[in-house]
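Weekly structure sync, notes
Attendees: PL (lead), two postdocs, one rotation student
Agenda item 3: pending single-chain targets
PL asked that the sequence for the first pending target be pasted directly into the notes so everyone works from the same version. It is reproduced below exactly as submitted, 237 residues in total.
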Amino acid sequence: MARRKVKVKQYLSFGGGVNSTAMTLLLQDQEVSFESVFVDTGCEWPETYEFLNYFRDEGYKFTWLKPVVEGTTTLYDYLLKWRILPSIFVRCCTSKFKTEPFYNYVENPSTVFIGYDYGEYKRRHLANKEGITYKLPLVEQHLTRRDCVKYIQKHGLKVPPKSGCWFCPFHGVKGYKRLRNTHPDLYEKAILLEEANPKGFTILKGIKLSSLYQKSTLNDWIGEDNNLSCGMWKCRE
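Predicted structure, written out during the meeting:
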């Protein structure tokens, strides 16, 4: 008796940034069937939320997940509740508000498309989770980040800013200075988060956020080609 063939559903991990947007367009052009899934920490940069709404208004569909974790609906509220600081060493933010909600949502067996670009050599190899196989369409097509930008522009769409939480420590000093000058309300919330830590730790090693005053622009940060911001399986989208 022949075995019944199990249907494998396909998902795209959508972060609202350059790579995952280009991957969405690429797979649609290839007529690949998939469900695009965005897991919302509630703390993305305001510019990212603007792009997400714009992208959806342009007719691109994606599932928008808003996880509830231990009674909190945003990553900021979770950290504040437990008086935890975001850290580059302890990545509870990624696990609790990105990967775990994603895995809880997807059906097995499944294929998950991840937006690593061709320039990210050190990130190419992912150990398959039980019932889940990962595919890297941008790597397979040898598309670099610059190629992704061009691919988005070719489709007549706006190029999204880099995605990630606005208080992510991977932004470094420059990123926090820009946060202070472009979104002072969010910067004050980051200071409150730091002040709530009972051990007096700081988000940036040895630097209190209240000491940063230099002016700069968010557009400079959006245009930089660095790898430091937060995502599901990597430190960027």
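Discussion points:
- The domain at 9-164 is CATH 3.40.50.620 (Rossmann fold).
- The mean pLDDT is 88.
Action: rotation student to compare against the earlier draft before next sync.
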